[in-house]
Amino acid sequence: xxxxxxxxxxxxxxxxxxxxxxxxxxxxxxxxxxxxxxxxxxxxxxxxxxxxxxxxxxxxxxxxxxxxxxxxxxxxxxxxxxxxxxxxxxxxxxxxxxxxxxxxxxxxxxxxxxxxxxxxxxxxxxxxxxxxxxxxxxxxxxxxxxxxxxxxxxxxxxxxxxxxxxxxxxxxxxxxxxxxxxxxxxxxxxxxxxxxxxxxx
Amino acid sequence: xxxxxxxxxxxxxxxxxxxxxxxxxxxxxxxxxxxxxxxxxxxxxxxxxxxxxxxxxxxxxxxxxxxxxxxxxxxxxxxxxxxxxxxxxxxxxxxxxxxxxxxxxxxxxxxxxxxxxxxxxxxxxxxxxxxxxxxxxxxxxxxxxxxxxxxxxxxxxxxxxxxxxxxxxxxxxxxxxxxxxxxxxxxxxxxxxxxxxxxxxxxxxxxxxxxxxxxxxxxxxxxxxxxxxxxxxxxxxxxxxxxxxxxxxxxxxxxxxxxxxxxxxxxxxxxxxxxxxxxxxxxxxxxxxxxxxxxxxxxxxxxxxxxxx
Lengths: 201, 309
What we know:
The complex is a heterodimer. Chain A is α/β, with parallel strands linked by helices.
């Protein structure tokens, strides 16, 4: 390893989420390897819908008009009072050490307002409890320890559902990272990780 | 009406709660422990309750009858318990098919639009009930396989399964463990639940001894209100610090009109007395502001400069 290279490694919630889905979905492993190698992933329709919804919501929060006939008028109007005035796209980072390895946690928060982190999701097939095992809220609680709540705001196209988590209910992110590194070790993927996820800072 | 945190009062707050569990676990008796309760007995659950603990109940065959009984209950009861939520949705389906032509498929089945109608009606009804009563929705559960784990899913029309949790403040899975009854308020890999207001994890439901008052949920609801007041009191100083820091910080950030003022502004923002997440929010607002103004940080000069300088 060059002396000039950083010896810290970046960890994002999307990397940990891709790993989690690789354990759940049969097809998840290939997507996880792409994420691990930082290869672009072709967005599917669900992902594109999610991006479209997010853009529409942000535009309305920034003052754009939305017609009552718009397909997302009702869910966006439902989200509006909660998210209006929230800081968008705060991007905190944090150094941590797990098993002697230095990591930089990094996240981009959809919305942050008065101690609550909000993350919007678009899921046509939402089922209650979908995000209970997600590494996103534990990761963001580590990044924003002063947050008192994390709320997923999920839109299925018509309705808004909320999943709320509190810091004292979640597994510390360090444990997830340890399990992740153990998995990489078991699958001989540590070199791939270190090659692609070295922190630039 | 805008209410300041210091003036908030939760003593009149009504609670919506879901209790789910396998048939026979004691959900109906538990629902009858709520304050001044009327049971909407769509499942004939009252017949299985120990006569000592029976309360007033409404037996109705149609959704219209149910709405009439609820209207008649206004001012007389503090809690409406619907036994079961699954039966309520079936009643709503029947009502939608009779009253909404779009709810009927040509082949006689229930249409997609019909599900839209009952979803909207469920949310409307829940919001309306909350204005007047505490509400308890009981749901039977059924065991399903989720990988290697057993998952106890509520028995209700599939497309409404997530929706019924939406208006609920609390949702608990009622189950037996080592001969004792528990309510699980925190979701697990085995069941859905919803914790709030400091009510979380497993809460043991004491055995109901002969002659003892059936008041478990009345006490729980009182606890919720006490927790809400305590949380509001705890939060107040932080909220006040947050409000002040956000107002002062925004004024500082909006005042940046030259690159040399940016660092000074950032330091001033960091020097404020912060509350909740005000520091992170203001730092992000600062970043957005300098980006908008076209400034960039020059690490050598340790200062913000115009981009391209």
